[in-house]
What does this fold into?
Amino acid sequence: MNRSRLSTFAVIASLSLLSCGLIFEFPDSSGIEYYPRVENQILTTGENPHIRFDFEADRDSVEALFTVKDEGGVRTGIYHWDGQTVQFQAVPELIPGRRNVLSFSGSFYDTRGVEYSVNRIIPFYYLVSNESAPYVVSTTPGQGETIASDTSLHIFFSKDIDPASLARGFSIDPHSDTTASWEDGTTELVLTPKEKWTHCQRYTVEFSEEILDIDGIPLAERKEVVFWVQEDVEAPFVVSIKPVFNLPAQLYPETGGSLEEDIDLESALRVAFSEAMEQSGTEAALILDPPVSAILVWLDALTLVFVPEVGFAPDTDYLLDFRAEAVDLVGNPLKLFDPVRFRTISGLIEVSTELVRDGIILGPEDYTTATGIEIEPYPITSNYDYTFVFVFTGAVFGSNNEKMAVQKAISLICLFPSDGVANPIATGFSWTADSRLSITFSDLQPSTSAQRIYYLLCIRGDPGGVGTDEGRRLETDLEQLLIAAVE
It folds into this structure.
């Protein structure tokens, strides 16, 4: 079959279908016109979005698809038909400066029942674009922040606001009476509570589109700010840390020194805060490195005393810090705290010895075994007593155990001759003060012209010698050579 015969057959078939009413029509929506015509077009006063058809459209199916939306959702309104043109009149009126969207998307029919498919979305504005609409630039406090009970709110707008519109567009929940004032023209709104905000209350402030600028343009978008009220919002801080005497009955008076100087081993530390602190958390937050066993005493709500149970270690560097658990009574955390470093004194004990009979005093640096000191017996007999008085500086020996340890650390032995002469015996101990000890030794023997007798006075130092429970110590053994006078 040639091409001309095929064409003739197609025409005959089409005429046959047309005569039977079976010919198909293909819907054409290309002639539909939309207004606004272009995206982001600005409609003027009295203009409404509309659609014009070039055929008779089924009105119900058209209205079911034709919507106008803004950020609040689908707008309500009235459809007006004029011939083949339908307009949408928003009720209430479209908001100036608000971004709207004309939507005509889905399926509709003409009056013959032919189905059309469309998909047209056109954003537009009314009167002005949202770039010109006022908006909330920022607020003080910011979102979720906490303020004091007498703090004013500051709201900063991008344009001058009509103060009369504030009553319609501003709300606060829970309700609280406020006084409004304006600064910087009418771009900064200051809201001050007539009475204080409620302590520990959550407030929500809302600014709606009913707030207008001085040209009558509403806010570009609704703004909501949530803030909290706390009576005290200032962070506490450490005012001072000072060494104090460990004297509870006198409420731990200051030593007069500072942590910039080496502190005494028996000192306590007094921490003064700027405001009342939550005690248990603050105690748990205090860190001392290296650690020291201590008790913590609150003199009042602002003053904490760190009292070492057995004193600080001598000649040691310490670091005092606070962790985040340290808060005031309303939960404000301690302001950033710079750890404090301090050092303890060496804790060395010095000893001076008085040889009572001979009126000789040995200072801390005078002890020697290179040369001997001759001591006279009293009375000059074959066996006699000799008394020494030891004065300690840098320590006091307050307990009986400390005193006993000192007594055991002091000895007097016969150095020469090694045979035939016994070591003296300590027969009397007397503490005339906690730092002054008198010891009497018996059975010393005088020298003879044929034989000199040498004794060695020994004061034993660290470790295990003269020392205190707090860690003070005599650093090294002290030894003095003594020569008994000739009888």
The chain has four domains: 33-126, 136-229, 238-343, 350-484. Residues 1-23 have pLDDT under 50 and may be disordered.
